[in-house]
Amino acid sequence: MPLVLYDYKMAPSPRRARILLAEKRVPHEAIQVDLAAGEHLSPAYRAINPACTVPALRLEDGTIITENAGIAAYLEAAYPDPPLLGRSPVDKGLVASWNARVEYEGLMAVAEALRNSAPGLKDRALTGPGDFPQVAEIAARGLTRIEMFFDMLDARLQGRKFVAIDEFSVADITALVAVDFARVVRRKPKPEHTHVARWRAALAQRPSVAA
Ligand SMILES: N[C@@H](CCC(=O)N[C@@H](CS)C(=O)NCC(=O)O)C(=O)O
Questions:
Q1: Looking at the DSSP assignment, which residues form a beta bridge with residue 30?
Q2: Does a structural domain hold residue 141?
Q3: Ligand 1 atom 2: the closest Cα is on which residue?
């Protein structure tokens, strides 16, 4: 039985897993879980991932790994080449640190803005099995945080090819997905964010980014 990625092409979180799988050239199948149709809340998908989120990765032995952090840890151990979590102890620390920052300051900021404002996500302000009402102030806060994220990322990328270390890593994947995801709330880096623009253009050359 091959690896199976529970995916949804339109969503940013499974895109992180898709890029990782493509970078490591891991053969797998993909099953689309239609979030727009609420398939992730169905009993069938709850049995796969009780957290009702994608991505999830089913291994050959049937084990289900959820969360991008878990999927990345598994793939790095099972398919070490190319390493995407850092090679040396220092690099591993830097990659984990920057990955956490861009997830919290970038991806979460966009998610806050979107989930607390989009009519289609009414009462779905948080992922998971529970319903939570939208809070307009959190949407506004998310938009402010996105601008801070772009500024932070641009400063970090000044004089650097990659976000965390001297080679491509999961921190670049997460940051790229966050920058692209911001379009859903009509935000993008400003013209003065030249370092982000250079970095994003260079990453566009990697075939994995289209995954
Ligand atoms: N921490 C999780 C987050 C996964 C997540 O939030 N996935 C979203 C799609 S981007 C989801 O499944 N949303 C379901 C929903 O909207 O209820 C991870 O990185 O794997």
A1: 5
A2: yes
A3: 67
Mutate to test the pocket of ligand 1, among 127, 132, 181, 184 (most ligand atoms within 8 A of CB): 127
Mark whether 112 and 185 lie in a shared domain: yes
Domain co-membership, 72 together with 134: no
Q: Based on the structure, what is the number of domains in the chain?
A: 2
Report pLDDT digits (tens) over 2-29: 999 999 999 999 999 999 999 999 999 9
Ligand 1 midpoint to CA 157 (Å):
27
Contact 149, 178 (CB under 8 A): yes
Domain assignment of residue 83, yes or no: no
Q: Do 103 and 68 lie in a common domain?
A: no
Q: Does pTM surpass 0.85? A: yes
**Which atom of ligand 1 lies closest to the CA of 67?**
20
Contact in structure between 116 and 103 (CB atoms under 8 Å)? no
DSSP code at position 33? -
Domain range spanning residue 119?
89-210
The distance of Cα 184 from the centroid of its chain, to the nearest Å, equals: 14
Distance from the Cα of residue 195 to its chain's centroid: 21
Ligand 1 atom with the smallest distance to the CA of 51 is: 12
* Cβ 125 under 6 angstroms from ligand 1: no
Task: Say if residue 141 is in the same domain as residue 188.
Answer: yes
State the CATH number of the domain containing residue 101: 1.20.1050.10
Ligand 1 and 20: CB distance under 6 A: no
Instruction: Tell me the residue length of the chain.
Output: 211
Hey, is 58 helix, strand or coil? Answer: strand
